[in-house]
Amino acid sequence: MKKVSIVSAAQAAELVEDGSTIAICGCENVLTPDTLLRALGERYARTGSPRDLTEIHPIIVGMGENLGLEHLAQPGMVRRAIGSGYSYLKTSRYTELLKQDAFEAHLVPMGTVFQMMRDTAAGRQATLTQVGIGTFVDPDVEGGGINARAANSLARRVDIEGETYLRYDVEPVHVALLRGTTADEYGNISLEDEPVSLGVKTLAMAAKASGGKVIVQVRRMTQSGTLHPRMVEIPGILVDAVVVVPDQSVSGGDILNPALTGQIRLPLQNIEPLPPSVSRIVVNRAADEIGEHQIVNLGVGIPVNIPKILIERGRFDQAVFFPEHGSIGGVPGERAIFGTNINPHAIIDSTQVFEYFNGGGLDMTFLGFGQIDAQGNVNVSKFNGIIPGCGGFVDITHRTPRVVFCGLFSAGGARIEVTDGHLDIQTEGRYSKFVPHVEQITFNAREALRKGQQVLYVTERAVFSLQADGLQVEEIAPGVDLQTQVLDLIPFKVRVSPTLKTMPAAHFS
């Protein structure tokens, strides 16, 4: 077996040619090959090459100043970008270039991007999926383009035996930029310090099937034969070059990282309880929806705190939490390491996760919301000048039978307190989350009804259900006036359940 080339980051950057398509692994700052991306950006700043790149990132890569995709935020460097999200930060230079039409930018659901890479690896000509029909990625709605340069949708509708699908042409990958923990002399890569694998093997296979190169950033080298075969995530036959970065950071830091990777298990009492807040009311009420032995997905934001409530109630074992990045079981990590789990029971790859989700394997999911409209549609992908994208949201809601959206009723300066077991709304937020029409359809309510899904919307002051003619108020918080503090603040008609209930008083104590 041929020994792998060990190169510097600058030498690795020289392997990327003008006009190349690059595939990049990473989830925000987890498993991001930041040293490789920095070297690529420095080369372009110095020489003007490589330019006119197409970059594919299944998940947001990097989160913060001079991290991840920010290294590519240079005019002329990128010609086209394809990913499930871009940035949650208003300070993102990459997002600013996107909004200036400096390059063509497309949003594609995370699971679909992985499926595209898998189909590239298998030598297929196209990806077919029903994920996203009726949402903004559907060419009959918006087509997934998020700026004027992306006028032509990557997807088109096709009918197969009476069923509608979205068809995407597969993308060849000229260079895959990946990250691992340890490489041996033959280029076999292990990920023992990484809490998730995020499709690295699929991206590597897609590059090799395209006649491209695979470059992997690792923390250390080891002698051949010292990696157990079961530990090898990327086989050496797929790897062209390795860049060693001894000070490569670990997700969660040195203390928490072993609990994310499964090397140790933290006692549940070490998990900090959720402090009193208005958000806690939402989390408490949402947690009531979990029955026994449920397989549950949690979205970013408010929902990720649901396990803390179950720990407090002594009912943590009633659910298995399964984020889209591959950790199964345990306690989902905080915002900075979203997608990882503390004390996981198992860790599988993202490509298999979405196969499981698309097959209807989840019992329920709890997700956030940015906007809700009169039909019950939800937007989380575009608002207030930020374009975070959809991530795995569209995939997760595609086949999951029970969907619970969690969030505050309004945003921007609301002053709300809990007094004597009642909700005291002193000042309303400046921005209503209920709008006549969402800015972008990330969740299509009519499609959900057609598929027989049960949908709830949980806020601190009221709980709504999705009905055939829109939203219906099912519960009201103690101390809240239904007319003036709920119905009058929603700019469309909402039904009131004939059996309207009061939200459990225990959530307001």
Description:
This protein is of the alpha/beta class. The protein has two domains: 5-244, 3-Layer(aba) Sandwich (Glutaconate Coenzyme A-transferase), CATH 3.40.1080; 268-508, 3-Layer(aba) Sandwich (Glutaconate Coenzyme A-transferase). 20% of the residues lie in helices and 27% in strands. It contains twelve helices and 33 strands. It has an eight-stranded parallel sheet, with helices on both faces. Strands 17-16-22-25-30-31-32-33 form an eight-stranded mixed sheet. A four-stranded mixed sheet has the order 13-10-11-14. Helix 8 (306-313) links the parallel strand 16 (294-298) and strand 17. Helix 4 packs across helix 5 and helix 4 (110-121) packs across helix 9. The protein is globular and about 70 Å long. The chain starts with a strand and ends in a 7-residue tail after the last strand. The model has no long low-confidence stretch (mean pLDDT 96).
